[in-house]
Amino acid sequence: MRRLSPAISQRIAMGILWLLTLATIAVLFYIIFYILIKGLPHITWEFLSQAPRSMGRKGGIFPMIVGTFMVSGLAVLIAAPLGVGTAVYLTEYTRESRFTFLLRFGADCLAGIPSIIYGLFGFVFFSIALGMGLSVLSGALTLALMVLPTIIRTAEEAIRAVPYAYREASYGLGSTRWQMVTRIVLPAALPGICTGIVLSLGRSISETAAVMLTAGSALRLPQSAFDSSRTLALHFYILSREGLSMEKGYATASVLIIIILVLNAFAYWLMRRFIRRAY
Amino acid sequence: MNQDKLIALALMTVALSAVTGLAVITVFIFKEGVPIIVDAGLRGFFLSSDWDPAAGRFGILSMIVGSLIVTLGAMALGGVFGLSLAIVLTQFCPAKLAAIIKPVVELLAGIPSVVYGFMGVVTLVPLIRTYLGGPGLSVLAASIVLGIMVLPTVTSISVDALQAVPRSYWEGSVAMGATKWQTTHMIMLKAARSGIVAAIILGMGRALGETMAVIMVAGNALEVPGSLLDPVRTLTSNIALEMGYATGRHREALFATGVTLFVIIMIFNTTALVIARRGAGKRGPK
Amino acid sequence: MTPDALTPIIEVHDLSVRFSGKPVLNHLNLDIHRNERLAVIGPSGSGKTTFLRCLNRLNDLQHDFSHTGQILLDGKNIYAPEVNPARLRRRIGMVYAVPVPLPGSVYDNLVYGPKLAGVQSRDDLEELVESSLRAAFLWEEVKDRLRMSARDLSGGQQQRMCLARVLALKPDVMVLDEPCSGLDPISTAEIEDALLELKSSHAIVLVTNNTKQAGRASDRTAFFLMGELIEVGDTGRLFTNPVDQRTNDYLVGQFG
Prior knowledge:
The structure holds 3 protein chains of 3 kinds.
Chain A: H1 6-39, H2 45-49, E1 52-53, E2 58-59, H3 62-93, H4 98-112, H5 115-129, H6 136-160, H7 164-172, H8 177-206, H9 209-214, H10 232-241, H11 246-276
Antiparallel strand pairs in A: 1-2
Helix pairs in contact in A: 1-11, 3-6, 3-8, 4-6, 5-6, 6-8, 7-8, 8-11, 10-11
Chain B: H1 2-40, H2 42-46, E1 51-52, E2 57-58, H3 61-91, H4 95-110, H5 113-131, H6 139-163, H7 167-175, H8 180-191, H9 193-209, H10 212-218, H11 235-242, H12 248-282
Antiparallel strand pairs in B: 1-2
Chain C: E1 8-19, E2 22-33, E3 37-41, H1 48-55, E4 65-73, E5 76-77, H2 85-91, E6 92-95, H3 106-117, H4 122-135, H5 139-142, H6 155-167, E7 173-177, H7 185-198, E8 203-207, H8 211-217, E9 220-225, E10 228-234, H9 235-240, H10 245-251
Parallel strand pairs in C: 3-8, 3-9, 6-7, 7-8
Antiparallel strand pairs in C: 1-2, 1-4, 4-5, 9-10
Helix pairs in contact in C: 3-4, 3-6, 4-6, 6-7
């Protein structure tokens, strides 16, 4: 077989590569537009502010919106200090050693555990062993563990990006290590850290398997963190699986997608601010 | 000085949270799941495809096979697309276009799995049923949907691997008259090989762990699938579908399924990490 | 200026420094007098910067740092266990080779140190800011833009700001590590003028690779070579009549 000339094989290869790239972009846009086109018309103010009726066939999704933000918000609230604290410890307070290797290994492993296993764990540990039952709190604690590795990783990156010279300058002016960390390093790393937090928020909002087994699927508005609650993603899953209402389903999915889009855009803007703060 | 030591100690305690969490998770999952594996016997649990909780039989072989088949299918798709995107992003892309492609990939990663499953059900499954036959809910559908879902993982880790290759490799090759494509597939891909392999293995780990989307498009039949168009049940679907109403030994068996999944994925992820680390070490001084 | 009238504010006794076991400074003995400008010269790698960083214990931050010997500040060993390094670094202030403006405004940069030291009243802080900037010959140029980002200043202005930043702590000793290495001649001259004014209230140690700068901007000069102090003495005398042959060879440019 005659060998193709390098120029031609480059053309072919690039053609294929670009085709695959365009196909990928097309898939994303198809998914987003499909859902939004079918769902946006059904998003009304009543939909967003009312409780569901008839198992979700009628009414709105207000309790789910509240439930979603309660679970995800609480999860990130718990995970953020833990994650940033871990990152600060790893970067500023120790050298690389077997101990730090163990800490990172723990975080990497946590990152790889599938969500259904987190669900099983949250169920048997938080809900049963610690007696929280199916509740926002149980879901939040479970999700906090899930997003902890992401926060650790992004916070560490952000902290390491702060130039060493700042630290020396701070010491030279008479600061302790903690003062340097809180007055110079963390403020400088803040945009990067916030990006990680926003991304984690997005992940926990999308999560279904883990919250299904820990926060439950109650349709009522949660009055406190000890109540069970249904998140938007879970509600969408139940609506479509039980075939309860296509319209409400599309509308719920649209709300989800819009929230994700907004969060991603916000994270993107934060990242650009992070990079533009030229050191 | 004492204050600084106290702070260091407090931070160290905080830093132990991830490892402690991992330990607690491992302990509790194994505690709930291992007894029934012992009870049913290794052969009765892992090598039997007879899953009949009502009759007390808990063989998960069909689901192990199901998970692996669907994962391989997902990687065939997600691996190819993901790697192509990574190559385009790092070697062939002007900055303006990269500014479009990167957010696209991140958004793909952000879309909830239930939405992917839903799209699979309303668009992909009917297509398969109409043009290829079978119930539509199939290995093929699950592979395609999963492939799209793991694509971002493969892309981002491959991008890291490709970007870590020293620029001098690229420049040296082009200076000798090679085309961009020749340089890419003869030099850059080889140099980034360990990172790319790690990306694929980690992608497989993600695919193995995916639950909601698979439930919606895979059909969840309890037999070992004979073809791409047959329905299939994975380890994850098994847990998610039956956990809602399982009690007693049945529930324990689901935890045991979880243990199996946990161990398989741990093996995959650790392998990937080791490969990536060894590859990074081999590269030597830049 | 007769050496007898000056009492040493810093005495270095038999200081030896190792990094990971590798010797960097060997049995150093040197006095630093109040109200003098001491230049430290020598080829790269002689340990000049290491010596400077011992004075404010910045070397403590390197994990492989070990030392023997003593450094006395006003008669007290700075490495004694009860000494607080943070407080020490306010008495011995350092200016680095590359200006490092901290994120924030000029004002923020200048009050950072004093705030850490406990100065709280706004009037005190503003007075400190003005007096330090005047002493660094920078006040006129930035007095109308104190709240603007410090990064927008030119290189020479940034370095003078770093000087002012250290002055705001009212240190006893100022140590400067090749502060003019990236600066144009005008900025260099401004800093040298500032140092001349400042010596009336501070002891100044100036590490420099530029022997001409040492010649014009110091009262005494110390010559380091490969981790040892070869010779120290009155600048005029050292440059024209060095005692050690190696000093002479370095000054005429035979090596370095």
